Amino acid sequence: MRNRLLPALAVAACLAAQSSAPASPPLSEAFGAETGAALVINPQTGTTCALFDPHGLLSQPFPPGSLVKVFTAIAALEANPSAASFLVTCVPSSPTVPAFDACWYRPGHSTLNLKQALTVSCDRYFRALAQRVDPESFFSVLQRFSLVDDAGTRRWSRQETTQAMVGFGSRLRIPPASLLAAYACLFSGGCLYDLTSGEGTLARRVDLRPEIARLICEALADSPVTGTAAETRKEAYLPSLAGKTGTASYLYRGQTDYRKTHGWFVGVAPAQDPQAAVCVFLLEGKGIDAARIGVKILSSILEGDRR
Fold it and tell me: Alpha helices of the chain — where are they, by DSSP H?
């Protein structure tokens, strides 16, 4: 499947214009020896605040891991609003059970509704939810957020689509910049920005029912409190934070390596009135590793703005 790279190509253009400039100190220092990239924008205007991408990763498509669960949830809620109260019990699973047949949290999450499952990124819940979502609806949501085009998606098997909805496998690939633009859209009243100039140009407005946007944003705001990004709380000097972590199958330059994973984090702060949104992508790592870097970046940038 060929991904639509509108936001990603935008970052490539920014990189070309800024390649001779040093990286923003908070970004380069936050990464240390890790290989990765980060982009920070104002989610209300789409303007670029800071950029770190020495290896050109922001414009390359990678498996998104659990970051795609937000769009699976949107597809489910748009098709049936009662999906918000759909309950699934995440039971404990043995370490010997294949990952797709279990949950990343092997002790089990107990019984969850959709909002709770998104907060803790429950694989078992989203596998059950994905089986109730029409693939056409899922891909339609991705297209509206400029994450994919429609070329080739009709050739996907149901199993491949279900895996993609949960965040497994590597067939679905999205550039980090595209995911940042899509997540920022959720917190900006549906404004999807084209990042080409770094100044923020409105590409389109994404229609999303207010109650759906509210549920998604509340779930993401709960993630740093009780969910997958909870470990970052002690490292955050932020009034509030909303975000989503992801640990994805490794695929780089056409090569897979099942011993490695990509680490993702998209976050906005403050959660109730976002002034900065960041996407951190680690070529090798886990979602919590990317979240720690993302929280440091957001803290540094917002603290600098207050000075």
Answer: 6-18, 25-31, 69-79, 114-120, 123-130, 135-144, 158-166, 176-186, 210-226, 287-306
In the beta sheet, which residues pair with residue 247? Answer: 263
Using an 8 Å Cβ cutoff, are 75 and 145 in contact? no
In our burial notation (b when 16+ CB lie closer than 10 A, e otherwise), range 253-282 reads: eeeeeeeebbbbbbbbbbbeebebbbbbbb
Token representation of residue 303? 């603290």
CATH of region 6-306, choose from 3.30.1330.30, 3.90.45.10, 3.40.710.10, 2.40.30.40: 3.40.710.10
Task: Specify the pairing of strand 48-52 against strand 201-205.
Answer: unpaired
The CA dihedral of 229, 233, 235, 240, to the nearest 10 degrees, is 100
CA distances from 18 to 36, 53, 131 (A): 17, 10, 44
Q: Rounded distance, CA 239 to CA 122, Å?
A: 26
Q: At 38, which helix (H) or strand (E)? A: strand 36-41
With beta carbons less than 8 A apart as the criterion, state whether 304 and 34 touch.
no
Pair 149, 2: CB distance under 8 Å: yes
Give Cβ neighbours of residue 259 (< 8 Å, ≥ 6 apart): 250
Give residue-wise pLDDT tens across range 83-118.
Answer: 999 999 999 999 999 888 999 999 999 999 999 999
Band of residue 249 on the pLDDT scale cut at 50, 70, 90? very high
User: C-alpha angle 282/288/292, rounded to 5°?
Assistant: 80
For residue 137, the SS3 value is: helix
Residue 28: what pLDDT? 86
Ordered by start, the domain boundaries in the chain are 6-306
What is the pTM assigned to this prediction? 0.89
User: Which token pair is 258?
Assistant: 């099942």
